Amino acid sequence: MKNPLHRRILRLFLKKPGTYLPLFFVSFLTVAFTSSFFISQNSIKPLYYKGLAENKVEDGQFLMADHLSPSAKESIEKRDLFLAENFYKEVIFRIPGDGDHREKILRTFVNRDAINTAAIHTGRLPEKKGEIAVAANLAKASALHVGNVLKIKGEDYKITGLVATPDYSTILKSQGDLAMDTKHFSIAFVTKEAFDSLNEKTNYLYSYRNHRRLSEHEARDKFEDILADAQTSGPILGATTTYDNRCVQYFIDDMGGDVPMMVITMVLLFVSLGFISALQTRGLLQEEAPVIGTLLAMGYETKSLMRHYSLIPTCLMILAGLSGNALAYVKGYTLYADLYYTSYNLPPFVPVLSLRAFALTTLIPLGIVWLVNRLLLMRYFRLSPLRFLRREFHRKKRKSAPTLEGFSLKRAAQLRILAENRLNILALFFGMFIGNVLLLFSMALGPMFDDYTDSIRNDLKYNYTYMVKAPDPDIHADKGLSLSVDYKKGNEKSDLNLLGPDKNTAYKKDLPTTMGAKDVVISTGLAHRDKLKPGDKIAVKLPQWKNYKQLNVVAIAHDIHSIQALMPMAAMNELIDKDEENFNLYWSQKPIKVKDDRLITTIDRAKTGAYLEAFLENFDGSMRSIRVMAMIFYFTLVYTVSKLILDKSQKDICYLKIFGYNDGEVASIYLMGMAVAMALFYPLSLPLFDRLMRYLFTLAISKVSVYIDPHFAPKSYAAIYALDLAVFAAAQALGRRKIKALNMVKELKKVSG
What we know:
Elements: H1 8-15, H2 17-54, E1 60-64, H3 70-77, E2 81-85, E3 88-94, E4 105-110, E5 119-123, E6 131-135, H4 136-142, E7 149-152, E8 155-164, E9 185-190, H5 192-197, E10 204-210, H6 216-231, E11 236-241, H7 246-287, H8 289-297, H9 302-343, H10 355-380, H11 385-390, H12 409-420, H13 422-459, E12 464-468, E13 478-489, E14 492-501, E15 519-523, H14 524-530, E16 537-541, E17 549-557, E18 564-566, H15 569-575, E19 585-588, E20 599-604, H16 610-618, H17 620-648, H18 650-658, H19 663-700, H20 714-740, H21 744-748
Parallel strand pairs: 4-9, 6-8, 14-18, 15-17
Antiparallel strand pairs: 1-10, 1-11, 2-10, 3-4, 3-7, 5-8, 6-9, 7-8, 12-19, 12-20, 13-14, 13-16, 13-19, 15-18, 16-17
């Protein structure tokens, strides 16, 4: 026989919308947001790997100072691979009518047909001069469409296609960039005729693809052999395998970090909601205790009653899960898909139905809420029917309450209410902690990256840095040598900038006069990130070397953000077996003219960090969404806890009103104590909160080749506190309305069990 009690579940939801609707709404929003993310992730990830295969991603690349010699090219091609010229020019472009006057650069390639071929979102590749195909995410970020025109050196180039390529799923200007700037740096394709007509210098990038699939170890060994062949033709300016190419791997690393972060966030939110749900169930049990006692005394089975009371939150979560997933599948997934496709340059999006997303966002929350409620019900239904009838919910005899002598009646009542509702208050604190994590994440990243950018500019010793292919006898400026090397600490590998200043440069004070041939001074950022100190050793390797070489750390230089090591230019040239006067950098406080055929790149102090500003602009919408969700979650939490306290105390509130207390005084007794507790909790928990957020941020950027001191501006904490107080006040205003609207006649007619 079906349990007839289950018929009242819908009636209970309709009778108490103020109790269950807020919990349903927050659960619905949480499921919709997280499910949208997992649907996007489960759709994009296979598209990414499919694009790598179908569009023939390279196995490696190397940038030469000039063309490969025929003999070097022949030697490389004998290594069972296909070698392609992937030359590019960086041109400045402008979008007609765009009010953004910051410099915009297109890394322009010739149409490809063998390696790193283009996946076309819409349109086609250019077929004649005056036509251009651009990265799809540039078009999305800048509202460009096929048929629009770009201005390059005063000439019109008509956009014929929006494309994505596997070697630039993340469009970074250099491998060391922290983030992408989709609006101001991107890639494009033109015909050979149009490419040759561009006056900018040519960058001689070569890409290769092995004829057969190799293991990572075999691929790295082969890469070293290829670079050894290439080096016979001239200087190698940069090189990387696909495994180390951040333009290829950054996206999957980022998504790989997003998934556990989203799962953890979802679990924490639903643990908090599970506790709130359990407190609601507890309130319902206490309200209906005489009825439960009567049913038990009449022979009603305990397991039937437990099943009934666990069905109420379970049905709520099932409904939230189904409706939240429905919204995610109909429209919600576009929120995250648009975010990914604005930041990354990926193959055309095709949504995929995902049972995994449904399981993660419905079964896990359902399991959490069911388990928390089940544990509560098991505790309560160990009581005898007589205890339910008497409303005695504590198995052990309760200790007599403290007298609270010396306190006024009002203050004593506030303290007793806080003590009696300590579980509700603890649930509020836990939820507030989670909400503040989301708020800080959405509000503090901008100021932190601004500080990071300012620090980089301040740490630069010169206004201008010019990387060159060869010396220019007409230039008289400070010189240095810069190399990007593989760096290993334990089993962890990353990139490291090895910098060799010449004598009498601004770096002179950072280099001790007694340095040996294999001594280095490391930056503060590297020392902090990897916990290094003088006396330690680091292992470095150029891509073409077979083995790592050990260097001794002798000092730490103040450069908080860069990941680099310094040694005298002569010692560095000895390390790489070059002439002691070999260099590739000019440093100057004023602009100098370097011939285009010698210049590789320029670093301008004034423009440093501009890409981070654009990067944060792309994420501004998502940060606002997280902020709104955190505030809704927190509002619902405060409202629900306040309502639980007031619902449990309705009869006592009526007595206070009979004794002459007005609505404001009653509200101050039942709500002010919670307000004071909340106001104190935030500053008292701030040290733990700050330490946790620093740890989470450090974990999030652990794979990036920079060091950012994880600090959060005091104004961010102050803003969060102000928002907490404002949301708390809004939620408690509803509690005050409930006190004012209380039906005293109806409440006092109730018979105590």
